[in-house]
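Please produce the structure of this protein holding manganese (II) ion.
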Amino acid sequence: MTTCLSALQQWVDDVASHTQPDTIYWCTGSDAEYQQLIDEMQISGTLSALNQDQYPNCYLHLSHPSDVARVEHLTFICTEKEKDAGPNNHWMSPAEGHAKVDALFKNVMRGRTLYVIPYCMGPIDSPYSRCGVEITDSPYVVINMKLMTRMGSAALARIEREGSFVKGLHSTGDLDPDRRFIMHFPEELSIKSIGSGYGGNALLGKKCHALRIASYQAREEGWLAEHMLILGLESPDGDTHYIACAFPSACGKTNLAMLIPPKSQLGWKIWTLGDDIAWLHLDDDGRLRAINPECGYFGVVPGTNSQTNKNAFDMITRDAIFTNVGLTANNEPWWEGKKVGKPVTDWQGRDYDPDVGPAAHPNSRFTVAATNNPSYSSLAEAAEGVPISAIVFGGRRKKLAPLVYEARDWQHGVLVGAGVASETTAANIGEVGVVRRDPMAMKPFCGYNFADYWAHWLSFAERTDKLPRIFHVNWFRQDSDGRFLWPGFGENLRVLRWIIDRCEQRVGAKETPIGYLPEPGDIDIEGLDISADAMRALTRIDTQQWQVEIESIGEYFDSFGDRLPAALRQEQQRIAKELASL
Ligand code: SAT
Ligand code: MN
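Below is the modeled complex.
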C-alpha cells in the first residue's frame, strides 16, 4: 500500500477505535451499492419508496424536525489565529475545536456502520479537481454523496496517485441541537461534523469542503472557490457565453441555471453546468475558467413547478431523493407551489392540516444527478472547464438595487460583490426575511477572513487583463404595495442578454456612481406586461437610498479593521463622493 493509502487506512483505524462502529464499509460508488443502501434504509425505515409508476427510483426521507437546515451559529472555522477566521466567521482554536467534538465522537458509532467515502470534487481527470474522504455513519449521506459527487473507486485511485485529500469526519450523533457542531480546520484541510444529517451540514463534499476548506486552499494556490451557478447561454447564432452567478442560498440559483427561455426568446438556449458551486482558475492564456465541483443538485423543492422550473420539475420525477416533503393519497411527493395534486401527510409524517403548517418544509430538498437535467451540458465533465464571460452577483432586495448594473472594472466589481446584501431565507436555521450583508453570497461559506478574501479577489487584476466583466442583478424588487416589479423566472433571460450584449460591446449604458445601468429601452421587454414606470424604477438609482447604502457598506468594512484592502476603501469613498456631487 502506498504512503497515502496507509495514511488513509491509519486515519480510518483511528476513527474506528474512537467511535467504535460495528462494521466498516469502504464505498465503491457502484450502482449496485447504491441500490443495496436504498434497500437497507427502507428496511430500517429511514427511507420510503414513492409511487414507483409516477416517480420511478424516487424515495422520501423525513429528517428529525429540528434538523432541517444549516446551522451557522454552530459552524466554526478553527484556525490558530482568530484574526485569520475573521469577523465573518465563528472561531474556535483548533485545540478547543478538536477537544469539543472528539468528546462527542467517543463511541458514537456503536451499533452503526462506519462508511468510508472517497470522493472527487470536479471531473475525475481535471487538474482543477480536488479529492476528499468522508467518514460517516449515515447511509443517507452515502446515497446523497453518490448523487452529488464522483464517489468511490475512481476517486480512491486518484487519491492514491496524488497523495493528498481533505479529511471529513461526520456522525449524526444523537441529533441533539445542543450537541451539534460543524467544525472546519482549514490549516489541516479537515472537517468534523456531528449531530446533524442535513445536507449542508452532513454532505461534507459540498459547503464544508467545496466552499469553506476549498476557499482557503484556493487562496494559497491562486484560484477561487465560489458559491456560484455556472450556465451557458447560447444565442440563436449558436454562440455560447458562460456566466457564473453568485446568489445567496434559496434565491433562485437552481432556477436560473436551468432556465427555459420563454416563447418570446426564440432560438435562445440555456445549458446547465452547475447550480451552486464554481471553482475558478486562470488558464495559461489568462482567461478565467470554471468547473463545477459537484455532479448533482441538492435543490429547494417548494415552488418548483412546470412554470417556475420545468427542467427541475421533470428531472425529479425519477431517480431522486426527496427530503422533508409531504405525500399525496397516491404516495406521490407533494410540496407548496407544486400546482398539482394535494397532500394527505406533511413532512413530519402527520395528517396534513394547513392550520398546523405547510405540507413540505420550506427548506425541503431534492437530490438528483446532474445528468437527469434536460438542460445538462456535457461540458460539466470537461477537464479544462469553461471560459467565463461574466460574473453576476445578486441578492433578494425589495428596494434599492436596480434590475441590473455593471461594475466599471474589476476593482469596482469586487466592491459590488463585497457589498451584496440579501434578505435571509429558510436555508439556515434562524430568522427569515431580514437584510444582512452576504458578500459574494459567501457569508456562510468563506473559510477565512473576508478582508483577506477580497484582497485575493483584487489580486486577479494584477495577473491578467482578460478577466470577465462583473454585474449585479436583483430579480426581487417590489413596488410600494409589495408587488414584484419584474416577472422573474424565464424572463430573466432578457437580463442575461443585456449582460452578453455588454460583454460583446453591442450596447451602451448610463454611467452612474454605482456603475453602468441599462437605458430602459435596452432590455427587451416585448410581450411582457410591464409598465414604462416599472421599467424606469428598475433601471434608475435613488441617490439618497444609495448614499445610505454606501455609508452602510463603509461601516461594514470598518469591522474588518486595517486588514481591509485599501483599494476597497478607496472605491467605497469614490462612490460616496460621486453620489454626494449628483
Ligand atoms: O447548505 S445547503 O447545501 O444545504 C443549501 C444551501 O444553503 O445552499
Ligand atoms: Mn448554496
